[in-house]
Amino acid sequence: MPELPDVEIYRKYIHSTSLHKKITDIKVNAHKVVENKDDYIKMLIDNQFKKTQRHGKYLFISLKTEKQLLMHFGMTGRLDYFKSSQECSKYSNLDVFFDNNYVLSFIAPRKLGKLKIINDTSDFINENNLGEDALKIDFDSFRKLVQAKKGMLKSTLMDQSVIAGIGNIYSDEILFQAGFHPRYNVNNLSNPEIKTIYKTINNVLTTAIDKQADPDKFPDSFLLPHRQKGADCPTCKGMIEKIKISGRGAYVCSNCQKK
DNA sequence: AAAATCACCTGTCCGC
DNA sequence: TGCGGACAGGTGATTT
Fold first, then answer.
1. CA–C1' distance A35–B3 (Å)?
2. Distance A110 CA to B8 C1' (A)
């Protein structure tokens, strides 16, 4: 479930479980997901996690040496920290063993995740053409970026080179709460409307983080607990419909969301 | 430039 | 209950 709020929860998870412990061993289970060669990723052994940092949907873990371990969760990635006497998930891509006999597993059943040792986070962000983090960008920069775009609002929100962190689920939530249809043309937005969207992004993402990114804990006024075809809109009790945008499912209340 | 489609993988859900 | 197809919270390449 890895959009910005989920990745932020994972960041906190690593922060509270895995820092400042000696890494005694690692096990690479999915070579497709771990981009480095075996002898290179082995630099984790005898190393330590020192610090966590998130940018959009990417998580960076600083090592005791100058390097960083990059995590990207794809569509199904998650983490688990457990006693080494317990059994690892059969979908684990990488296991990191600590000297306290605990293990951190990076688990991505569809192998769409990515793990990699990198030298510098800002180089990585630049090379991968990532925009500013959706929670850190200021309004003026956001407004300028949006005004330079054309096309559908949902696509703009999900474009990681514009702002980083929003994916399919949370773009639906933001559009629902801001009251715009996913196909709404960004060119038609007024300044106050851009401001509304900016504030909604902030509100939705911070609320989601606050609720551990668990839709079951979200307020009932959110779309997410109702995000299925034929469900009742929490605002107008009309029907939530499913449409397709760029091959992705988008859920919308055409009564509440401006076309 | 933006949108759609496919590919990458594999588990789960839905309909017959 | 069983089977096949569609679909899944991401990204990147390719085509229209």
1. 30
2. 9
Please answer whether residues A256 and A246 qualify as being in contact, where contact means their C-beta atoms are separated by less than 8 angstroms. no
Token pair belonging to A25 = 């061993």
How many of the other CB atoms lie within 10 Å of CB of A195? 14
Rounded distance between C-alpha atoms, residue A129 and residue A122, angstroms: 10
What string of DSSP letters covers A153-219?
HHHHHH-TTTEES--HHHHHHHHHHHTB-TT-BGGG--HHHHHHHHHHHHHHHHHHHHTTT-GGGS-
The confidence score (pLDDT) of residue A2 equals 95
Contact indicator for A49, A26 with CB cutoff of 8 Å = no
Report whether pLDDT(A1) > 80: no
Strand B bases with any atom < 7 A from protein Cβ: 1-11
Instruction: State residue A33's pLDDT score.
Output: 97
Protein residues bordering strand B (Cβ below 7 A):
A 32, 91, 109-112, 149-152, 155, 245-247
Amino acid at A102: Y
Over residues A198-230, the pLDDT tens digits come to 999 999 999 999 999 998 999 999 999 999 988
Reported confidence tier of residue A94, pLDDT bands at 50, 70, 90: very high
- The backbone torsions φ and ψ at residue A69, rounded to the nearest 5 degrees and listed phi first, read -95, 120
Q: Which residue has its C-alpha nearest to nucleotide B8's C1'?
A: A112
In which residue are the tokens 């995740």 written?
A113
* Cβ of residue A74 lies below 7 Å from strand C: yes
A244 burial type by CB count under 10 A (0-12 exposed, 13-18 middle, 19+ buried): exposed
- Using the structure, give the distance in angstroms from the CA atom of A71 to the C1' atom of C9, rounded to a whole number: 16
